[in-house]
């Protein structure tokens, strides 16, 4: 009787052991794929990015001096979803992707300053106070940064609305969180941050005042930022004295004229005249493109940082000195590559499960059996 019970227990033990082995393999594969696609892939992509080389020696007559280099990251159009648009899963997924990409870039690249060129939120132009507070809290969690890293944010049309839907409350609400400063200086470089969606009314007087402050500065090096290109609503980043021009490989802006009412056109055209930039960086288009103003001042549009807007988001890395600059683009993981990896993993898990259940012959076992048959002949 005891022998029968032992035999029965062994019969039950082997199927249970096989099921446990299968479960462990499935868990191991799922964990490995999730670890790679949700963490390691960001390190793999951003590790390939390097700060561009820039000339650091300046000559004043016969005297040479070593100029400090400012490492700046430029992002645009994060479009954090609010309470109305988009599915909750879409919101969760996109914000996780941007958080991992940003935190990985901070750790690997060690920038000194990060600029976000507008449209931080997708629904800021109509969000309620409660929804706004929730959006801001999520933004601060995603884009948290060490105290030694400066984070500068410019308003976009999705943050406060275009001029016809913008009001004092929306502007003040935005500036309360992200500051109202228009001029930011570091390492002898001046950045002018322009809220281009407000380029009407008394905006001209404000720009003249900023220009006056720049002209009174002995350094005389300028830089500025906007959300949209100068041929539309703009939030751009400027730097002075035109160096070599850089071009990106996606699209081309053909219209370099300002659009909108007369006041907006006047201020847009006056930006280049008053501020005399040598570089303009802007957002709004979600794609990288280049246009030259007056045949000499280059403007580069920064692609969207969100996978909701692009299959291949990216950001701009800038090495900037008071007299020169160099830019390069850093690509983030492609959405379609991640989907292919997940689909391949699902297929592998199905094959593995069927093999363990005996419903599908394992290719490895089939090959091993074939080798054994050949050896016995």
UniProtKB/TrEMBL annotation:
Q: Does the keyword Lyase apply?
A: no
Q: Where in the cell is it found?
A: Endoplasmic reticulum-Golgi intermediate compartment membrane
Q: What does this protein do?
A: Metallophosphoesterase that catalyzes the removal of a side-chain ethanolamine-phosphate (EtNP) from the second mannose of the GPI-anchor protein intermediate. Participates in the glycan remodeling steps of GPI-anchor maturation to allow an efficient transport of GPI-anchor proteins from the endoplasmic reticulum to the Golgi.
| Protein name in the entry | Metallophosphoesterase 1
- What are this entry's molecular-function GO terms? metal ion binding; phosphoric diester hydrolase activity
Which cofactors is this protein said to need? Mn(2+)
* Calcineurin-like phosphoesterase domain mapped to chain residues: 71-287
PANTHER family tied to this protein: METALLO PHOSPHOESTERASE RELATED, METALLOPHOSPHOESTERASE 1
Question: What is known about its subunit structure?
Answer: Interacts with GPI-anchor proteins (via the GPI portion). Interacts with TMED10.
Asked whether the keyword Membrane is assigned, the reply is yes
Organism whose genome encodes this protein: Macaca nemestrina (Pig-tailed macaque)
Q: Coding gene?
A: MPPE1
> Can you tell me which residues the record assigns to a coiled coil?
none
Task: Recite the UniProt keywords alphabetically.
Answer: ER-Golgi transport, GPI-anchor biosynthesis, Hydrolase, Manganese, Membrane, Metal-binding, Transmembrane, Transmembrane helix, Transport
Q: How does it sit in the membrane?
A: Multi-pass membrane protein
Family annotation (Pfam families): Metallophos
Span-the-membrane segments of this chain are 21-45, 339-371
Q: Which family does it belong to?
A: Belongs to the metallophosphoesterase superfamily. MPPE1 family.
For this protein, the record's Gene3D superfamilies field holds: 3.60.21.10
User: What cellular component terms from Gene Ontology apply here?
Assistant: endoplasmic reticulum-Golgi intermediate compartment membrane; Golgi apparatus; nucleoplasm
Superkingdom to which the source organism belongs: Eukaryota
Biological process terms from the Gene Ontology for this record are:
endoplasmic reticulum to Golgi vesicle-mediated transport; GPI anchor biosynthetic process
